[in-house]
Specification:
The protein folds into two domains: about 15-115 and about 125-380, Alpha/alpha barrel (Glycosyltransferase), CATH 1.50.10; about 395-655, Beta-galactosidase, Chain A, domain 5. It is about 30% helix and about 25% strand. The strands form eight sheets. It has an eight-stranded antiparallel beta sheet, with no helix packed on it. Strands 5-6-7-8-9-10 form a six-stranded antiparallel beta sheet, with helices on one face. It is elongated and about 90 Å long.
Amino acid sequence: MSPAEIGWRVTSQIATRVRAHRAVPGLHAHAVAASLADFRAARHRPVFLDRGRAHEIAAAHPQLVEYVLAAADDACELRFQYFGYPGVQLNRPIDWNHDPVSGVHWPVAPAAGIDHRTADGDPKWIWELNRLQHLPLLAQAWLFTGDEKYTRALFDQLDSWMTANPPGVGIAWRGAFEAGVRAVSVAIAVAGVRDSELLTAERYAAIVELLAESATRCERERSRFSSANNHLIGELVGLATVATLFPDLPDAPHWERVARAELVGQADRQIHPDGVGAEQAVGYQIFTAELFAVAIALWGDRDGVAPPELTDAVLRGAQFLAQVGDPQPRFGDDDEGFALRLGAEPLRSVAEHLDLVAGLRGAPADDPTVVSAARAWFAATRLAPLSLRRPSSAQVHGESAYFADGGVVVLRSAGRRVTVDVGPLGFLAIAAHGHADALGVTVALDGHEVIGDPGTGSYYGHPQWRTVMRGTQAHATVTVDGSDQSEMAGAFLWTRHARTRVRAVDLERGVVDAEHDGYAVGRAPVVHRRWVVAPPPGSELSSWVPLDAVLVVDLLSGTGRHDLKLTWPLPPEVDIRRTASDETVLRIHDRDIARIATFATQPMAEFATRGDEASGHGFWSDRLESRTPSWWMGMSGQQCALPTVIATLVTRDPISETSDVEIGFRVEAHHHGGDIVVTLSRGGVQQRGVIDTRREGQVRVAGPPT
């Protein structure tokens, strides 16, 4: 951190402790009645959850109503389930500081003095409960049915929360980000039940005071410097939501000006001009984009339009995710965060996010019979139809694309999708949610992911999982001497960052050539350079690398001898078997779908690890705080002399299920001066390709060996 950032953090901590003892005024007593009347009538403010819209949604999508009501009934009965943890049944009255999963009771003490990083419990669970994101479900249920049990539950729980969590006290107030995300849900839910008789003047005044306190913290304590990632967006959108829905608060005009100006300024920083999220994490890209979407919907509902910088960021991000396509892309962290929870889905998929964005921009649903609550409500706003003003900076050729700003290459053709990570570690100096996966590759064939990213694993619940799952050995790249490419200094902090250099991306021929300097340190530095060859139809390289295959060639150069390990993480549904021709066959549901053949110029042995508790290797994480055994396979060698070349071919399985003959590929690679010669053999037919390491992106077919 810079001296300026250190100074800011110190003064912020002091200021936070001082403010914890100061009350933030809401409305003057004489103004409460008039403010409540304006609130009920939605004067000078937008409407998001609304009775008229609810009737239209219910008439068009009755199954959606049933889905929301089931989730709201769980909230009424205090049944909650977060992340990969088991569901829990809370007692009445709710103890908002008790985590029933771990049994930890968080202290009722000034929030600024609670160190959530060293506590025994998982603050993510207790934060999720205290975000009150189930309140919009209760508001919707009341709008759909008129049943007061839902508003009673909403106000009883909100009253209970405000009593148990005075401003600045308890884990729920640990950070302005939590206050901002919670303010979005509370403000929108209460606005949805604004004409309920249970919203008394006294209750309204208390809620407004809570939201004013939240907005004040979001403005004064908002994230800066290396922390100005999705946390800053959550704080600014919380600020914007309170200011927009409660414009008669004394500071509301100022809050809205601050929120609007900074959100507009952050739009291009948080989502690159090519549509890739700056945090190098698909989950956080969706979360950030949907935070933007909340501000867009509120301002659009009030004014008919929203800042074009925000709408462009959301649209170009959706365009990137759509171009990557199925199966769902993922890289970096994912903590399953919601900007505004309107349904019971446990996490937002890419497809669901794209559907929400389509609703926001006024596009019809692909399948009108299957519409999410999020899409329905965002589509119901009075926002004018959106279009992308400024084209994405991505380079596109056919079905393939290169997102240079974010560092993602997608090579696609004939049912094959390959992604290559050539981007930075993460966003800003701490790169909090990035993984040490430089030059990582994913491969999907016929809609099945066969090589992928094993996921996040854990944040606080299982620290050892966190270390492994964000490390290099958990990703489809090469590890040198058992070290990560970048250096961890905490669960959300990286110090030294590996830097990737893109030498060439040739979409027309299907070639990526890049390297990183993550191991170019110490007495015996090593440079990892990787070529990925996945030719599209029409490329002359397809006579060497088949159209349904991808060739990955790794060159480790430098000094000394080193332990090398190339990992291919496979999803849990993929099983493996070995063939007589030294290939590994990947299988799903007892059906062969792909083959992997590898060759190294130094002695290396194949390995396959599944569910190894001692090392933490061989696991896949689809949900935070959960993991499933899966195969991590590849090649490893000790004290390999450099340069070392490792060539790997992944191909769709060509064998008929009724055939008894194994006709697989064999791979050989040789390093001759500046050339790497890779020979692929199948059924006695050999074809050579040459990679000229002295030039960038120079790959050619050389014909059969002489």
